[in-house]
Design a protein that fits this description.
Strand order of the largest sheet: 1-2-3
Radius of gyration: 62 Å
Largest sheet: 3 strands, mixed
Shape: elongated
Strand content: under 5%
Number of strands: 5
Helix content: 55-70%
């Protein structure tokens, strides 16, 4: 800034002072002396001072532009406005004088240049509002302009004229600033500008369409202020006073304002009608939002606003009246509040807010009477009025009443058309806004008091009007007029029929049916919804009305009678559409129940609906919705109580419906069965424990309780065959839900098995009936797999539940007795039996009764044979005994036992209790808790075996009179029972507590009788007892060998058979044959049995048990007692045993110390103290000879078989650790001649013991066994005979073939392993001696190949017992070493070739060693690759 010094000097900077500060200081000193100050300032200016520096000090850095504005700091430091204004006027005057122009012209030009500089030339910005910076600068400029106006240097109108010359489309924000800064009023602008409409309307539209930049936050607010200020000004100027304007200028101004507002209104209405315009969604809506009293009340008075809104409403209602009334009738449905343009309804709501409903409807009526109207706008206005004003409905009804009254009084067509249009428009919005059209029409014309009922002319006027509407009417109104016609007196009925005929013809042309119309359809002339959708809407409406009122709607009741086709084909299918029902009934379910009670829905339809809903829930699976607030158990209890009540009343259809509800509730609680309990219709039933969720257990108990109560209630008055079908249907809902069925079966099984004795009579009867119905319903559907029981395969439901009825104690028998009697009686009393229906009876329950009744009721045993049936006892009397609490179950059982229906079943094969089944049941009985005493039980067994089943034919499960068959059944039953107890370890009844002893006694009696028959000789072809017994066990072995584990099963079978055999008389196992007068023994069967079966399960290997050995020997002695020459026959028999049954011979020698006492005592008893027979004496002598060796004495060798001598030596050596070597040395000189064969047998027995010791180290000491083998092998090693016992081929064993009959096949397979185990434990010297033995290499190679096969095929010996691969490797090393030590000259070429061939496929290395070592000049082709 350039400073002006009060002194003439400007050289000293320190003396500089600003003009503004100087003047300000002067002002502070001389306040109130402004005039004097101004004169002195002018005097200073008249001096030759620099004006450019002066203007800069005034805050304008550009002296050439005196109206340029500085920044805020500059303005703060500028001089006061009055002084600045005076300075500017002075400067402008000076420049105007220099230029020769008026000061006003120069001022306007300079101001407009500055205004243009501030506002810019951007076209987009010219349509919107200025920025904040521009607004501030323009505000300062307008203050200056105002000062110029004050000093007369500028004229407002001249200023505007100059501005309009420069701006064709003035910026509305600038105009707004002109007004708020008191530069130019809107009125002055309009009065001075003839073409104001040409720019004001476009600029208003442009400003409404303008979108402020995102970074200008206050622009939107400014935009709204500008628009509202201008709108308020226009309203204030156009509608301020109702008087006529005094001058033309004022009149022209008013017209300009009204025209401008109308143009903007029409623009808004066009936008509402044509939403395709780009700005239609924002710009017109922005203008509409300005129609607010709060925005306009500053610029316009309330009266002006009312006049403006009423004027705008009239303009809107009459804008573009293009459609006739007929078009409005046809298109009216498109103009409801919901379908109308939101912009139009918003406009109506803002224009009507300051008026009452009565004023608006009065004005509407006036407009309708005096103008051509736009029916679209009129009807949209009415919709808006009804929606936003709750009091509009009664006022509209009054208006309609006035219109109809006027119409029928003067037969005014316009009035009735208007009334119908307005009434229909109101009905578009639902009953909460305005009554439905059908209600209004029935109210106005549906009775004798209607508007048309005053005269025939009035009636004809109405019908004529309706007939004229037919071509334009929407089909819904035509249907309504037909279904609900106006009231017509009877004598004028033909007039109505003419209209009805015309309307039906029109409907036919439209291809519409009356039956497609909904019950609650809103007759709005809209396009009819699809029938299914309309029916669904009717269902929803009817359900909601029922929920509110608790009553069935009259419309629904009328439709069920007068519109039955729609009711049955559309409404009910929509109502009964399957869905996921909640546990607690909802509104729709309650509505369905009400219709069912009103007989509008049949029980069949209701049941079908419930079943469909249940199937849908099962299909949905995990999608079933859970409702935490609904507890299904109380709902189910209530439904079950209601079902029980219906059974008492005997209402069959209601019961079916109620069962459907129960089924639905069950499907909610049991949505599906877990995968681990269901597999292809096989339900897995866990019998050990019941682990059901608490809710499931409670539900199952409620179902069982209700079923038992219903059975009891129904049986009080009617027998089962007259109780309708409720029980079968009840069980059907159980069967259909597999998850619930599984839980029910678990619960019933455990009730019958664990709590049967605690059940009351009605509970027993109910459960029995339930099992009968389950069997009948699931005869060919689901099966049950019993877990933790012995059932290998799935069984039927009835068999699974019957498995819970165990008859092993008195308590269990009596419960099972009661239960089965109730079940069979219930089944019989269900009706007369038909042959094709007899398989529907649970056979397992029937068989239980066949077992229990004769056992518990001795008098029933007589009835089995007398064949008398009680034909006089009918089903009703039988059932009366069942349900009579005072009647005894035994009496009822006797009645049942003699009933013809019961006995008819006994003739059917599937219902006959076979002897094997009887035996299985009897062997489960615990004798200590039996219902029968010991004597009673023996008597019962005698009757069952000898009277009942012995005489019964084979095809009926008996023995056909054959003791052979009877004994076979007894033996098989005993063995089955013992095998079951052994394999399953049954804990329920121990073997000591069962009836096994009595059954064995019965078997002994039968065997004894058979022996008596054989001894009588009356039937020589009859099979001997011995043959029978061994044939039975052979069949059992054949069955066990075909199983998955033949070795284990055969061993178990043999052990079981041995127990049975020991319980029988010993003499039963050797046949005594008669040849003339002489009796002789035949022990071939016994020998064959021992050789074939007994050797399979010997423990230890090669030895029978002491009991068996003693049993067989005693059998031999006692059988010999029947012969004339006892000693001779025994010697003959034992000699045969010694040669053909080595196992029995070796076992006899082994147990001789204990056996000798028994056998010799028995012999002396049989022969009155005679000396033992020769064969027994040989055993005694052999034992003495062997013992003498251990004492160092060499007695004369007995003339006994070598195996007998070897066995005697083995027994003696086996019991002594020392002295064996000395004893063998005593036999050394004579071994080659007399004892070689004895030693070979002895070696085999020692090896057998050694192998057993290796396999079972805990039982035997293998070191002791190995030492004994070494002692014997040392004696035999130089002889080739010892190698024979290791030959795999029995034919190569020579004189030692009998050793194969001493051990089992599994043990024989271990011989190669024993060979190498034995040799590898010997010293090197003994090994070399063995290798040099003739034929050793053949045996070694053969054993090695067999050992390889043993391990490759799957070892019989676990690796915990031997080091499998270690022994194999060591054996191979030993064999290769033996090959290298063998001289080729000791072998024939054929032998070498044979050995090579054996090894090629299993061990090429051994084959190569054989070829290289023994025949080096020949290379086997197969080994060339080596």
């Amino acid at each position: 800034m350039i400073a002006m010094s009060l002194s003439a000097s400007i050289d000293s900077v320190s003396q500089k002072r600003f003009l503004s500060s100087l003047l300000a200081g002067r002002v502070l000193k001389r306040q109130g002396d402004g005039e004097l100050l101004q004169e002195r300032v002018i005097h200073l200016l008249e001096q030759q001072q620099d004006l450019c520096r002066l203007f800069k000090e005034l805050g304008n850095p550009d002296p050439s532009k005196p109206f340029n504005t500085g920044n805020d700091k500059q303005r703060q430091e500028s001089i006061p406005l009055p002084i600045a204004g005076s300075l500017l006027v002075y400067e402008l005057s000076h420049q105007a004088g220099q230029l020769g122009v008026p000061i006003a012209t120069l001022s306007a030009k300079l101001l407009l240049e500055r205004l243009t500089t501030i506002t810019g030339t951007d076209d987009e910005r010219s349509k919107g509002v200025l920025t904040t910076s521009q607004t501030d600068q323009l505000g300062i400029l307008l203050i200056t302009v105002h000062e110029l106006f004050t000093h007369g240097a500028l004229c407002p109108k001249g200023f505007w004229q100059e501005y309009r010359k420069d701006q064709k489309l003035p910026n509305l924000h600038v105009v707004y600033l002109f007004q708020i800064h008191n530069v130019l009023e809107l009125k002055d602008i309009i009065e001075s500008d003839e073409g104001v409409r040409l720019w004001l309307v476009p600029q208003l539209k442009a400003l409404c369409s303008w979108t402020p930049p995102k970074d200008e936050i206050d622009a939107t607010k400014t935009q709204k202020e500008v628009l509202s200020t201008i709108l308020g000004g226009l309203i204030g100027l156009g509608f301020q006073s109702s008087r006529e304007p005094a001058v033309a200028v004022e009149k022209r101004c008013i017209l300009h304002c009204i025209s401008t507002l109308d143009d903007m209104l029409f623009w808004l209405l066009d936008s509402a009608d044509n939403s395709a315009q780009p700005f239609s969604e924002t710009a017109p809506e922005r203008w509409c939002q300005l129609f607010d009293t709060s925005l306009c009340e500053v610029s316009a008075s309330p009266n002006a606003l009312q006049r403006f809104f009423m004027h705008s409403l009239t303009q809107t209602l009459t804008y573009k009246p293009q459609l006739a009334a007929s078009d409005a009738i046809a298109q009216q449905n498109k103009w409801s509040f919901a379908k109308a343009s939101p912009l139009l309804t918003s406009l109506f709501s803002k224009m009507t807010v300051i008026f009452s409903v009565k004023q608006l409807l009065h004005h509407l009526q006036k407009v309708l009477e005096t103008h051509e109207v736009s029916w679209k706008h009129v009807l949209c206005f009415l919709s808006t009025l009804l929606v936003y004003n709750p009091s509009a409905q009664p006022n509209l009804r009054e208006l309609l009443s006035r219109l109809l009254t006027s119409a029928f009084e003067g037969y005014d067509l316009e009035s009735i058309v208007t009334a119908f249009l307005l009434a229909r428009q109101g009905s578009l919005h639902g009953p909460s806004i305005f009554p439905s059209y059908s209600d209004w029409f029935k109210e106005s014309f549906g009775s004798a008091s209607g508007f048309h009922a005053t005269s025939k002319k009035s009636l004809m006027f109405l019908l004529k009007f309706l007939s004229d509407l037919v071509p334009f009417e929407p089909q819904q109104y035509l249907k309504m007029h037909i279904l609900h016609p106006p009231y017509v007196p009877t004598k004028y009925r033909s007039l109505l029929m003419e209209y009805v005929s015309l309307a039906k013809t029109r409907l036919a042309d439209l291809k519409e049916s009356l039956e497609d119309m909904g019950l609650y359809q809103n007759f709005c002339g809209a396009e009819a919804a699809p029938v299914q959708l309309q029916a669904a809407q009717d269902v929803e409406k009817a359900s909601s009305l029922f929920e509110i009122t608790g009553k069935i709607s009259a419309v629904v009741m009328e439709a069920s009678i007068f519109r039955r086709t729609y009711f049955l084909t559309q409404f009910l299918p929509a109502l009964l559409k399957p869905r996921l029902l909640p546990v607690k009934a909802d509104a729709q379910m309650n509505f369905i129940e009400a219709l069912k009670r009103a007989d509008k829905i049949s029980a069949t339809q209701y049941s079908s609906y419930m079943e469909s809903c249940q199937r849908l829930r099962q299909q949905e699976g995990n999608a079933v919705r859970e409702e935490n607030h609904d507890n299904p158990l109380p709902v189910l209890k209530f439904q079950l109580q209601e079902h029980r009540r219906l059974i008492s009343n005997g209402n069959d259809e209601e019961m079916v419906a109620q069962l459907s509800k129960i089924s639905q509730t069950l499907s909610f609680i049991f949505p599906g069965l877990p995968d681990d309990l269901l597999e292809k219709k096989v339900i897995k039933l866990k019998t050990d424990t019941i682990s059901l969720p608490e809710l499931h257990l409670q539900v199952v108990d409620e179902i069982l309780k209700t079923f038992c109560q219903c059975i009891a209630d129904a049986s009080k008055t009617l027998p089962p065959k007259r109780q309708m079908m409720w029980a079968s249907r009840f069980v059907c809902i159980i069967v259909c839900n597999t998850h619930f069925l599984s839980c029910l079966l678990h619960r019933v099984w455990h009730l019958l098995h664990h709590q049967g004795s605690m059940l009351s009579g009605p509970q027993v009867i109910g459960l029995a009936a339930l099992v009968v119905h389950l069997h009948a319903s699931m005869f060919q559907s689901h099966v049950v797999q019993l877990i933790s029981l012995r059932q290998p395969k799935p069984v039927s439901v009835s068999e699974a539940l019957c498995s819970a009825l165990v008859c092993n104690t008195d308590t269990r028998m009596r419960f099972c007795f009661r239960f089965c009697v109730a079940a069979i009686c219930y089944w019989i009393c269900r009706g007369d039996l038909m042959p094709q229906k007899e398989d529907m009876t649970p056979s397992c329950i029937y068989k239980k009764l066949q077992y229990l009744i004769p056992r518990l009721l001795p008098e029933a045993r007589i009835a089995v044979f007398d064949g008398k049936e009680n034909e006089n006892l009918n089903s009703s009397a039988l059932w009366s005994n069942v349900i009579d609490t005072t009647s005894k179950w035994k009496k009822t059982a006797l009645y049942l036992w003699k009933h013809s229906a019961f006995n008819r079943l006994r003739r059917e094969p599937q219902y006959q209790l076979f002897f094997t089944e009887w035996l299985a049941n009897e062997l489960q009985v615990d004798r200590s808790k039996d219902a029968l005493s010991d004597s009673e039980r023996l008597e019962y067994h005698e009757w069952a075996c000898m009277q009942l089943y012995l005489t019964r034919p084979d095809d009926q499960g008996g023995c056909g009179g054959s003791l052979l068959s009877l004994s076979s059944h007894l033996i098989n039953a005993i063995m089955d029972q013992q095998q079951r107890d052994h394999s399953h370890q049954d804990h329920r009844v121990s073997q000591k507590g069962t009836c096994l002893p009595e059954i064995i006694c019965r078997l002994q009696e039968v065997i004894f009788e058979m022996e008596l028959y054989n001894l009588s000789g009356s039937q020589p072809r009859r099979m001997h007892v011995c043959d029978v017994l061994f044939e039975i066990v052979s069949q059992r072995f054949s069955g066990s060998m075909s199983s998955t584990s033949p070795h284990l099963n055969s061993e178990c079978t043999l052990n079981t058979w041995n127990r049975v055999m020991l319980a029988l008389q010993s003499m039963s196992f050797i046949k005594v044959k008669a040849e003339g007068d002489r009796m002789h023994l035949d022990c071939k069967t016994l020998i064959q049995h021992v050789n074939s079966h007994q050797r399979r399960a010997c423990s230890p290997s090669g030895l029978l048990s002491f009991d068996l050995t003693s049993h067989f020997l005693r059998s031999n002695l006692r059988a010999c007692a029947r012969c004339s020459n006892v000693a001779e026959e025994f010697n003959k028999t034992w000699s045969e045993i010694s040669h053909h049954c080595p196992l029995l011979l070796v076992s006899t020698v082994y147990w001789w110390e204990q056996l000798s006492v028994v056998l010799l005592s028995l012999w002396r008893h049989l022969r009155d103290g005679a000396s033992p027979p020769e064969q027994l004496q040989l055993i005694i002598n052999s034992q003495s000879w062997a013992c003498s060796l251990m004492k160092g004495q060499l007695l004369r060798r007995p003339s006994a078989p070598a195996l007998l001598l070897a066995s005697s030596l083995y027994v003696v050596f086996h019991g002594h650790e020392e002295g064996v070597s000395d004893a063998l040395t005593m036999l050394q000189p004579e071994r080659d001649i007399k004892y070689k064969e004895v030693f070979v047998f002895l070696l085999f027995l020692c090896v057998n013991n050694y192998v057993s010791a290796l396999l079972y180290p805990q039982e035997r000491c293998h070191r002791k066994a190995l030492q004994l083998c070494t002692e014997v092998l040392t004696v035999l090693v130089d002889s080739s005979d010892w190698l024979l016992i290791f030959q795999m081929n029995d034919a190569e064993k020579g004189a030692y073939q009998s050793v194969t009959l001493l051990t089992s096949h599994q043990f024989t397979q271990l011989v190669p392993w024993a060979f190498y185990n034995l040799l590898l434990e010997q010293s090197s010297e003994l090994q070399q001696r063995a290798v040099r033995c003739q034929g050793f290499l053949n045996t070694a190679v053969s054993c090695y190949i067999s050992l390889l096969k043993l391990f490759l095929d799957g070892p019989s010996i676990t690796e915990s017992q031997i080091e499998s691969w270690q022994i194999l490797s060591r054996s191979k090393t030993f064999l290769l070493k033996a090959i290298s030590q063998t001289s080729p000259s000791t072998l024939f070429s054929g032998t070498i070739t044979q050995l090579e061939t054996q090894c090629v496929d299993f061990d090429p290395e051994v084959a190569a060693a054989l070829s290289t070592q023994l025949n080096p000049h020949r290379i086997i082709p197969e080994l060339q690759f080596l």
